[in-house]
Write a structure and sequence with these properties.
There is one protein chain. The chain is 77% helix and 4% strand. α10 runs antiparallel to α11 and α11 runs antiparallel to α12. By secondary structure, the protein is mainly α. The chain has a domain of 96 residues: Serine Threonine Protein Phosphatase 5, Tetratricopeptide repeat, CATH 1.25.40. The chain is globular, with a radius of gyration of 26 Å. It is built from 21 helices and 2 strands.
């Protein structure tokens, strides 16, 4: 009981008795302890109802811990972690509460069941990463980088861990660190001839180099990744990579070529029924038509993308699309309406932890308020954007902000 991560429910109490002890004896012991207040009761709100949970009194925990020598305590610790982890592992198969899988994985990791732990913690970390909690994702998977863990889990799983960590660091704007992780993953995946995962690592490297402004290098990686996606008939990867190629060519000013890639990506997304990717590609098409000066057509694509985000709950695309609509209305001279969209975008991007786009829209808000003659407010937004640009080491954003701050002088 002294080893548990957080307060537990009564059913879990049955896993905490002596090894080989019957549940009847365990429950009687637990009930006796509860009556003497050695086990305290707490309440927690879960799904609009209160649940009874239990925890051992800290003084009792310290007393119990002192009754065993180090070797005996370690053996009991491992047995307890394994029993509790196994119990929660089964519970996690049907529980909607992500904390069950999280706790199960943590207990199993502690007792050396690394493969079983990753089966639980891998999806949890992906959930954290996509939900704007990349720092939690990193904290969760960092222990899997230990030499003993990597040796025992095998190269395929190590490649997966490194890839997730690379994406998490990329989300935080730590691009050089992300490249290191993706390169390590790529080396391992090539060695074990895991072509699908190799393609994903190449595509991820392309994304990072695109964010660093090294577009030609990004295209090289995307093309390699696209060849593998076609070879392995991985349509999901293919639609994503085609979209990334579209973005890269758009960054090079080759907008018609970008539109061609976006349409190919959109067709595949529709074919496989991937509504989230469909929304992303529609948004990208909107941006390409803005660059071509076809603003009304751009608004149509943005609105279609926004409608899909309401259906899918894709907050990232929703935030980016709202910001893009703000930029369109800014171009049309409707500055106050642009500010409304920028602010909505900013609220979402902050919630999901998208620092790069948060910085960009802070900069956009600065420009908009400057156009309205609200110089001090404009400076505040631009300085906030500059702080993010320097934090995430985004040279393009930093240059953009510095130029506009200079104009305010």
């Amino acid at each position: 009981m002294t080893l548990l991560i957080r307060p537990w429910d009564w059913d879990l109490m049955m896993q905490l008795g002596e090894l080989g002890e019957s549940e009847t004896v365990t429950e009687k012991t637990a009930e006796d302890l509860r009556k003497t207040s050695l086990i305290g009761q707490v309440q927690e709100r879960r799904e609009e109802r209160r649940t009874r949970l239990f925890q051992i009194h800290p003084m009792t925990a310290r007393f119990i811990a002192g009754q065993f020598d180090e070797d005996e305590a370690e053996k009991m610790r491992m047995e307890t972690y394994r029993r509790v982890g196994t119990y929660l592992e089964e519970l996690a198969k049907t529980s909607p509460d992500i904390r069950v899988a999280l706790d199960a994985g943590l207990y199993l990791f502690q007792c050396g069941e690394f493969d079983r732990a990753f089966e639980l913690l891998g999806p949890v970390s992906e959930n954290f990463k996509s939900g704007g909690m990349s720092r939690y994702c990193i904290a969760l998977l960092k222990p899997f980088e230990g030499a003993e863990v990597m040796e025992r889990t095998g190269p395929k799983r190590v490649g997966k861990v490194l890839g997730i960590l690379g994406t998490a660091y990329s989300n935080l704007g730590q691009f050089k660190k992300a490249i290191g992780y993706f390169q390590r993953a790529l080396k391992i995946l090539k060695e074990i001839d895991d072509r699908r995962s190799e393609g994903s690592a190449l595509a991820n490297l392309g994304l990072v180099y695109n964010d660093l402004g090294q577009i030609e290098k990004a295209i090289e990686y995307y093309q390699q990744a696209l060849d593998i996606a076609k070879e392995t008939k991985n349509l999901s990867n293919e639609t994503n990579i085609l979209g990334s190629l579209g973005t890269a060519y758009s960054n090079l000013g080759q907008f018609k070529k970008a539109i061609g890639y976006y349409h190919q990506a959109l067709d595949i997304a529709k074919e496989i029924g991937d509504r989230m990717d469909e929304g992303r590609h529609l948004g990208n098409l909107g941006s390409a038509y803005v660059d071509l000066g076809q603003v009304e057509k751009a608004i149509e694509y943005y609105q279609q993308a926004l409608n899909i985000t309401e259906e899918t709950g894709d907050r990232s695309v929703e935030g980016i699309t709202l910001g893009n609509l703000g930029s369109v209305y800014y171009l049309l001279g409707r500055v106050e309406r642009a500010i409304k969209y920028y602010q909505q975008a900013l609220d979402i991007l902050r919630k999901i932890g998208d620092r790069m786009n948060e910085g960009r829209h802070l900069g956009n808000l600065g420009l908009a308020y400057a156009d309205l003659g609200q110089v001090e407010r404009a400076r505040e937004y631009l300085e906030a954007a500059l702080a993010i640009a320097r934090e995430i080491k985004d040279p393009r954003l930093e240059t953009f902000v510095l130029e506009n701050l200079e104009r305010l002088k």
